[in-house]
């Protein structure tokens, strides 16, 4: 599985390929929003731009390509910033939440986080095994089902 290394929080979180970055973060209790975002986020529609994250040193295909919404909303932001609600995780990646807040020892923290290798993870969701119903064996008597209605016609009548 791809791993998301949340730099500010110091946590590595596994996810399935193609999972939404915002949903993964919220599922594991990672705080994406500052005060303004907590009070007025759009719930993942890409309209409020309060869930932006910084993604540096990632492979080009680690996240899904920029959406039209991101291109419009992040025009005046650094090129490494993404909207978590619009980003699908394809491969392992290092993410800084709330990059507008800065990070103490930021350059050193990025260097350390990028130096420690992340597992690449699979490129697809695991295949689910289908439940196979067992067919009755040849020559086996048909199953007799009982109901709560009592004996069937012709049985137990006096």
Strand content: 5-15%
Helical coverage, percent range: 10-25%
Low-confidence sequence ranges: none
Assembly state (oligomeric): single chain
CATH class: Alpha Beta
Overall structural class, as computed from helix and strand content, comes to alpha+beta
Return the domain count: 1
The strand line-up of the biggest sheet is 2-1-7-4-5
For CATH, the homologous superfamily is named as Beta-grasp domain
Distance between the termini: 68 Å
Describe the structure.
This protein has a single domain, classed as Ubiquitin-like (UB roll). With 158 residues, the protein is of the alpha+beta class. The chain contains four helices and seven strands, in the order E-E-E-H-H-E-H-E-E-E-H. It is globular, with a radius of gyration of 26 Å. The protein has helices at 21-27, 35-40, 68-73, 106-115; strands at residues 3-6, 11-14, 19-20, 52-54, 81-83, 88-89, 93-97. A hairpin with a 4-residue loop joins strand 1 and strand 2 (11-14). The model has no long low-confidence stretch (mean pLDDT 79).
């Amino acid at each position: 599985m791809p791993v998301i290394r949340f730099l500010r929080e110091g946590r590595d979180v596994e996810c399935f390929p193609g999972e939404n970055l915002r949903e993964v973060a919220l599922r594991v209790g990672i705080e994406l929003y500052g005060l303004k975002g907590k009070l007025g986020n759009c719930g993942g529609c890409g309209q409020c731009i309060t869930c932006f994250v910084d993604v540096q040193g990632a492979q080009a295909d680690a996240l899904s390509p920029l959406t039209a919404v991101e291109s419009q909303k992040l025009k005046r932001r650094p090129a490494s910033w993404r909207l978590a609600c619009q980003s699908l995780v394809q491969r392992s990646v290092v993410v800084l939440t709330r990059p507008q807040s800065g990070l103490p020892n930021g350059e050193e923290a990025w260097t350390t986080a990028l130096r420690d290798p992340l597992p690449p993870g699979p490129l697809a969701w695991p295949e689910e095994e289908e439940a196979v119903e067992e067919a009755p064996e040849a020559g086996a008597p048909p199953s007799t089902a009982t109901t709560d209605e009592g004996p069937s016609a012709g049985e137990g009548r006096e």
